Structures are given as structure tokens and as C-alpha cells.
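Bit of a strange request maybe. I'm writing a small parser for C-alpha cell strings and I need a real example to test against, not something I typed by hand. Could someone generate the C-alpha cells for this chain?
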Amino acid sequence: MIVKSFLLKQDTIRQIAAQCGKGIVAVVRPEKQIENILREAIRKTILEKKSAAEEIEQVRSYFRALSDSPAYQEKAAQIIDSISAYLREGMYVMASKIAIQDYVMARCARLCAEAVNDRVGGVLVDGTELMLCHEDGRGVQHFDWIRSQEQIRARVAAEGSMVISGGYGLLDSGYVVRVGKDGSHLMASLIGATLKAESIVFYIEGKGIEGIPAMTYDEAAHFCASASHAPFASSAIWPAKNAEIPILVKDITDAAFEGTIISTGSAHKRDVIWDKDLTLVTVYGTGLLGRVGMSSSIFSCLAKEGVNVRFIAQTSSEYSISFAVRTEDKERTQNALQSLFRDNPLLPLDDVVVLNKEVGIVTVFGSRMRNLPGTSGQVFGALGSAGINIIASAQGGEELSISLVVEEKDVEKAVSLLKN
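Reply from user aminoacidic:
Good idea to test on real output. This should exercise your parser:
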């Protein structure tokens, strides 16, 4: 059995169907174009209390063009009508926009799976029935690995052809919820690991991972976690790694390209990735010295605001903590920190200062860096000789990567220097 993951687009449905067949489990989710149309429909109905008839018609036209089959056309009409009715009802009830969005997107993913399966003629499975989640006492949602694996073993066949809608799961309460940042690839990886697949294939639009022929699991995970242009989320790698099943990253538009193989094989040479549109936030002051739980307080308040932290550095003096967030999250971060310092009487931080600086992060990564003396010296020396100031840096104890924070204007120059 081979498990494959696809992002469905109108102009790639034939290629996707050609990659499916006997012994193939295909996980399918919608492209961003159709998701953005649905997000606009949700915004208009839920926030503005207006009709989204125009957006619904765009969705209807999009899916109608995917197949001429009468059976598919009827099923597509039913699903789109149910989405439209759901949004109309949502105009008059107090419901979470995120909950509504997750339900609608899951229905859209189901429709994508219907379109592919119409051409393949396999067994169709709603992915929400496989990906089971639960909420803890604080309302935080967690993916339930054990129960999900039980469902996969019960529902997914090793023979024949199967198409599964990807990206969304089901809470114990019955609500639909998005599974991770990129749930379709994660789902494919989990299915492959659970059923001991021969291989797992992620189909994307692009030459694998930067055209690199082979990477270890750890190298690929570091790349996908650090690069803003990564083709999928790093979380999708871990189930396959734990089961030691290779992942092949292929280009759906170029069947001749061999792709990137991710496995326990030979390590890739040292490489460089980067990320822009970041703000480095530095919290410093004597009020931090010896303050137990300070880091926990800061990052907990950011987590509650849904702010993702891309980089963390703290000196042993405990005088400062620096972390990077998306520039789009800068205001939310500032407000969260101000609220933390103002409202918590247990944090006497009158002298604490918060600084913001627009930056980029350049990361040198690769398994061949491990146990190699002088790597950090080479990296810092190259940038220093070119007059590039390193504002902050961090290196993990696994010795797989070094992340350097530089001014945004210096990112491209730093990448060019370190790649050569």
C-alpha cells in the first residue's frame, strides 16, 4: 500500500486521478483559491450579516467544472446547498467564526474527495471520521493519536482504491476542527505509519524541497519548521519518521521529476533557509532577574492570543528574553505583554522595557553539521567579514541548525554568502 496526499486544483485533477488506483490511499484537500472564496462568504454572512450568494455561486461553478458525471453533479449540488443553508442559518445565531469556518472547509474537502473519487471509482471516506480530537478543561484542542489510529485500522483498507477528505477532524462534542497547520499531509503520514505503508508521497506544486534529492527526517523537519516557503508543515514528518517509512515529495505538474526522498538515508550537505516579515521582541530589565516562571508567563499570554513564536533566545544572566513573531502579530504581542505586566500583581516589573525591531531569520541546517568543530565560527566569520550585524542567535543541542537574526535588509546578502 502507498499513501498519497494531494492539494486539489482544477487544472491538476487529471494528474491526481492518474496517481490513484489499486493499493493507493489518496488524501485530498482543497486549494487556497476556493478556501479564500469560502472565507469571504463566511466573513460576509457571519460578521456583516449579508448574503454570500455571489461567493456560493463561484464555489458552485468551480466544482461543477471538475466532472461531467451526473452522480457527481448531484452530490456536489447537495453539499454546496448544505453549505449555503448552513451559512444562512449562521447569520442569526451566536456561533464562533472559527467553528463555522472549520465545518465549511471540511465540507469543501469532502467535495474535493468526491470529485477525485468520481474519476477513480474507489471507496470514499470522510476524513473527519478518522481524525479524532478532544478538548481539555481549558478549551484547548488536542489531536488524539491513539483513537485516530484505531479508527484508521478499522476504516482504511490495505487493498483496492480509497479517497479520503483531508485536513479536518472531529471533537468529542461533535464539532469539526482543523487538524494542525497542514492536516492533509499529516493525515497521510499518520495513515501510512499506522498501516505500515510501503511509502508516503506528498504531491506539491514545486521541485520537492528546494530541488534537493535526499534529506534525513530531521533535516526536512528543520527546513519545514524554519522556512516561510516550506511546502508543508514539519508535523507531517513525525509519524513517518517514527515508523521509519520514507516520504517522497513529488511535483504534481512534472511526473518526470524524481522528487525529494526523506528517510534515514544519507545526510544532505549543509544548506541555508530564511524567513522574513518578522519582528524581534526583546523584553529586558532587572525585574526579570531570578523571577521564577517569567518565561512561562510571557509565552503563555502569547499562546492565549494565538501568536506563534518563531525564535527564542535568552541569556544565562536572565536579564533579557528575545523572541521573534510575525510582523502581522506585532500589535497583538505588544498588547498581550502590556496586559501581562499591568494586570499581574505578582510581577513587579516597573523597569522592564520592550523593544521591537523588524528582522529576518537566516538558518544554516544539515545533519553534517553535527560534531563538526568550527561550523559556528565559519558562519559568524562569514557574516562579520561582510559587515552583517547578528542581532541574536540560537542553536539547538541536537546540532542540526544555527538560527541567526539579522536586519531584514541583510537577509538576502546573508543567504547568498552562506550558500557559497
